[in-house]
């Protein structure tokens, strides 16, 4: 009888602990999701060109960027939306846009590689 009561007490404590963890993390998750916007703001993106990594706000626009540009899109259209890249490597056909800093001191970039004038691949990179 005593063992059964002790087991019920442990289960009750575990349930309360689990509920407390959920209650703490759900609001954090919701607020983190709401920080990303669904619509891409080309003017805001372009205004960040030349802004140093610690102050660059492009990092918060990646989700909407990825909903805007796609493999197969012509480079001329990308330049119209994003402006000139922060760097370009003609040997690889890759444009880089500085995103800023994330959770590490390394700078994050968005790389767009072109083949025959259209996007061949997209990726976030950290250097």
Describe the protein in words:
The chain is α+β, with helices and mostly antiparallel strands. It folds into two domains: 1-35; 38-126, Beta-lactamase Inhibitory Protein, Chain:B, domain 1, CATH 3.30.1450.10. Helices cover 41% and strands 23% of the residues. It is built from four helices and four strands, in the order ααααββββ. The chain has helices spanning 2-34, 42-47, 62-66, 75-82; strands at residues 87-89, 94-101, 107-115, 118-126. It has a four-stranded antiparallel beta sheet with strand order 1-2-3-4, with no helix packed on it. A hairpin with a 5-residue loop joins strand 2 and strand 3.
Task: Summarize it.
The chain crosses the membrane at residues 12-30. By secondary structure, the chain is an alpha+beta fold.
**For the record, what CATH class of the largest domain applies?**
Alpha Beta
Proportion of beta-strand residues: 15-25%
Biggest sheet: strands, sense, closure? Answer: 4 strands, antiparallel
* Helix and strand run: HHHHEEEE
Class by SSE composition? alpha+beta
In the CATH scheme, what's the topology name of the largest domain? Beta-lactamase Inhibitory Protein, Chain:B, domain 1
Shape: elongated
Number of domains: 2
Helix amount: 40-55%
* SS summary, helix count: 4
Mean pLDDT across residues? 82
Strand order of the largest sheet: 1-2-3-4
Question: Which second-level CATH architecture of the largest domain applies?
Answer: 2-Layer Sandwich
| Oligomeric grouping of the chains | single chain
- Please give the number of β-strands: 4
The radius of gyration is 22 Å
Keywords: Membrane, Transmembrane, Transmembrane helix
Protein name: Lipoprotein SmpA/OmlA domain-containing protein
């Amino acid at each position: 009888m005593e063992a059964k009561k002790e087991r019920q007490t442990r289960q009750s404590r575990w349930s309360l602990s689990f509920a407390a963890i959920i209650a703490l993390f759900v609001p954090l998750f919701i607020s983190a999701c709401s920080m990303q916007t669904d619509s891409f703001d080309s003017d805001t993106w372009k205004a960040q060109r030349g802004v140093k990594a610690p102050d660059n706000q492009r990092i918060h626009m990646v989700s909407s960027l990825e909903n805007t540009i796609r493999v197969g899109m012509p480079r001329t259209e990308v330049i119209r939306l994003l402006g000139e890249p922060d760097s370009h490597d003609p040997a690889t056909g890759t444009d880089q846009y500085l995103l800023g800093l994330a959770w590490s001191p390394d700078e994050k970039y968005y790389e767009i590689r072109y083949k025959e004038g259209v996007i061949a691949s997209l990726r976030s990179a950290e250097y």
